[in-house]
Amino acid sequence: MTSEEIRKALGEVKYPGFSRDIISFGLVKACDIEGDTAVVKLQIQTKDPKIPQQIFQDCHTILDPLMGDPGKVRIEIDVQNPASSGEASTGASSLPGVKRIIAVGSGKGGVGKSTVSSNLAIALSQQGLKVGLLDCDLYGPSVPLMLGVPHHQPQADSQDRIIPIEAHGLKLMSMGFLLSDNSPVIVRGPLANRYTQQFLQQVAWGELDVLVLDLPPGTGDIQLTLVQTVSLDGAIIVTTPQEVAMIDARKAVSMFAKVNVPILGLIENMSYFECDHGERYHLFGEGGAQRECDRIKVPLLGRIPLEPIIGKRCDGGEPAALLSPSESKASAAFHSAAQALLDHVSE
């Protein structure tokens, strides 16, 4: 076996909880053959002792059969404390001019994450903040339609940076601006990661108080790319009250914990339906997000009601948060969630 063959074999070892391998994640610092022994040196930043233990075992599972003897495989792991809160453990850098970067994620699709991201960004903007919104869902970009600019195309400045589209007081970037309505995005993981990095680092965001990242659903490579590229101040998890959604929300919470990104809170979407005479019906269950918040000790930032006006206004490019809180309980909920977020991050 050669060093290169050993390194290639280690590409089969996944980081616990993710689809990405330890090679692409940059954990393998050295890979050598010393005599008849394969020596692999890794560096991991984590406070969870189970992670290096699992990687150690998985490396042996892959390499022992190749070397023919477990005694001919030596795995050395340098376990370091993760970076401080708000600083990505992979040495990510912040974006010039951007004061805070907040990710909005979910463990599954269909919970209204992009709807929450768009309305939350607008509500933050109406607090007097300079806000940007980056649609990180390359395969299903929806922010251009929701913000009423589906046919706009960004231009480049003199430094060859992308000039974000502006709408409703927000600076926007999305793969949707680069595609026609019916064009699918067909790219493999490495190219998707490159697009994500470009949207972060090669966009002329200017001076922003907050950059909101609307993440794709799940816990895949794009999420890892983000925490490797920029330093996140925290993440918000969107869920619905039902248990099947909470199962996936917990996966998202766990993913951010593994990469040392603090959870700022949960937002429960489609929390209830209120009929004309004021009675509330909890169509998807009740209290699921609050119980999870109590378990992981983070605030429940808001409960967003199920209102037809939310979908109707998003389809029309005029999100509900543009309405006065007195005109719409959904708008009031988004503005309340934005204020709760600001109160939490300023503590």
Query: Which parts are unreliable, with pLDDT below 50 for 5 consecutive residues or more?
Result: 83-91
Silhouette: globular
CATH architecture of the largest domain: 3-Layer(aba) Sandwich
Count of all domains: 2
Summary, kept brief:
With 347 residues, the chain is α/β, with parallel strands linked by helices.
Structure description:
- This protein is 33% helix and 21% strand.
- It is globular, with a radius of gyration of 22 Å.
- The protein contains 10 helices and 13 strands.
- The chain starts with a helix and ends with a helix.
- The chain folds into 2 domains: 3-80, GMP Synthetase, Chain A, domain 3; 98-345, P-loop containing nucleotide triphosphate hydrolases (Rossmann fold, 3-Layer(aba) Sandwich).
- It is an alpha/beta fold and 347 residues long.
- A hairpin with a 2-residue loop joins strand 6 (165-167) and strand 7.
Please describe the topology of this protein:
Elements: H1 3-10, E1 28-34, E2 37-45, H2 50-67, E3 73-80, E4 98-105, H3 113-125, E5 131-135, H4 143-146, E6 165-167, E7 170-174, H5 189-201, E8 208-214, H6 221-229, E9 234-239, H7 243-258, E10 263-268, E11 273-274, E12 280-281, H8 288-296, E13 300-303, H9 308-315, H10 329-345
Parallel strand pairs: 2-3, 4-8, 4-9, 5-7, 5-8, 9-10, 10-13
Antiparallel strand pairs: 1-2, 6-7, 11-12
Helix pairs in contact: 3-10, 5-6
